[in-house]
Amino acid sequence: MKLDTTNLERLLMSLPLKRRMRVINNSLKSVAAKTRKQVRAIVAGEFATRPTAPKPRKGGKRQWSRKSAPRKDVARGVLSLIYNRTRIGFKVYVSNTKPEGMHRNRQGKEKPVLFFNNRGTKLRKTSGNAKRRSANRGRVPGKGFMSKAGRVVDSQTSKELVRTLMTQTEKIVAKYGAKLS
Q: Could you list the pLDDT tens digit for every one of the 181 residues in the chain?
């Protein structure tokens, strides 16, 4: 993929440092938000669940709906972070500690379900002793949906970033002017 950025470089260098940093930061925020939104849509589709079944009539069976509902509550655990010190890029990641990445289970405890499902967990066992064996509690197999989403979104992100940088730079140049040499 070859992008022509000669005009962009010339315009960016003509701006003062403060305005240049503002252009880069605004562009990164915009593209990070769009990328996060796309990844959230992919993750919500991965966690589609069946809605709860209605109560059966007397002597009847529960009828499940064939449609699956995307899980937006789980997908909100996908966050984006702009690298503040360098302002060179951003990352979209699954949180395992922030409240947005937690899901409340039936016992009321908050668990990082999205983080567990992305990477998977190791085999869990209870602690045994001399009289009884430890019980196997299973493991969560990793789905790897972040790598799938990365492959889908990656090709669009760099083009979107260059396009956003161009529009932001042109807006700032039109508003404040620039010293073109």
A: 455 667 777 888 888 888 888 888 888 999 999 999 998 888 887 776 655 555 555 655 555 444 555 566 678 888 898 888 776 888 888 888 888 778 777 888 888 888 888 888 888 888 888 888 888 888 888 888 888 888 888 878 888 888 898 888 888 888 877 665 4
**Alpha carbon distance 42, 145 (integer Å):** 8
- pTM exceeds 0.85: no
What sign does the dihedral 146-152-154-159 (CA atoms) show? Answer: negative
Using DSSP's 3-state secondary structure scheme, residue 60 falls into coil
How many residues appear in the chain?
Answer: 181
Give the whole-angstrom CA distance, residue 97 versus residue 119.
15
Which has the closest alpha carbon to 151: 48, 38, 37? 38
Pick from 165, 64, 149: nearest CA to 114? 149
